[in-house]
Amino acid sequence: xxxxxxxxxxxxxxxxxxxxxxxxxxxxxxxxxxxxxxxxxxxxxxxxxxxxxxxxxxxxxxxxxxxxxxxxxxxxxxxxxxxxxxxxxxxxxxxxxxxxxxxxxxxxxxxxxxxxxxxxxxxxxxxxxxxxxxxxxxxxxxxxxxxxxxxxxxxxxxxxxxxxxxxxxxxxxxxxxxxxxxxxxxxxxxxxxxxxxxxxxxxxxxxxxxxxxxxxxxxxxxxxxxxxxxxxxxxxxxxxxxxxxxxxxxxxxxxxxxxxxxxxxx
Length: 266
Fold this sequence. Notes:
The chain is α/β, with parallel strands linked by helices. The chain contains 10 helices and 12 strands. It has helices at residues 19-26, 45-52, 61-66, 70-78, 96-104, 117-125, 148-158, 179-193, 222-225, 245-255, and strands at 3-8, 30-33, 57-58, 80-85, 108-112, 136-138, 163-167, 169-170, 175-176, 203-208, 216-221, 235-239. Strand 2, helix 2 (45-52) and strand 3 (57-58) form a beta-alpha-beta unit. The protein is elongated, with a radius of gyration of 20 Å.
């Protein structure tokens, strides 16, 4: 039996992979990549193949999830297979299922971590990571919009915790939910629930293109953020609660927050 090495690609382009990840890829007998769980704005498979000197096979959601990664398992039985994954390989993805399945078949697995959207957004905001509660994804709206994001924000606020909201991505369709759309969905739920969890006067932080050389980070009250131009996706949202004085300073200095956020210091 060979092995499967899960390698994180980082967040934005082909230069987000770590040196360790690149070395694992160069010594692989077979290399696969999935690009459906996240959107990397400047990533090019062609440029990446030139960088690593390796042919890379793109894998679909069906091949990984419905077929249990059979094509990767078969490659790993013959040698070393590398699966390249946007961000960190086992954060906000379903690939833990493949790792468990491989191990049960006797195929060794290893992980080479990469930058995660979760830690990147927290860092860009300047908020303390240990003050974050449960994260949640705001999905594209349908006939019956999910109220789960609203409930998660409410519960975290009740416990004095910040909330990271990842905005839905359909990478295969090149569709990304934007900050304004996510806020409007939450405001509609507020109209129905009336708990004053997400109102026009609620402080929020929008982050666009985390991991790139030109991310946009803006903190303000929702009534202002609705009209703010965050530029190209991917986008994320953060709902802070009570702030440490250093967090308030970071939001003002790094995210252009209004001075009024100092009133949230506890």
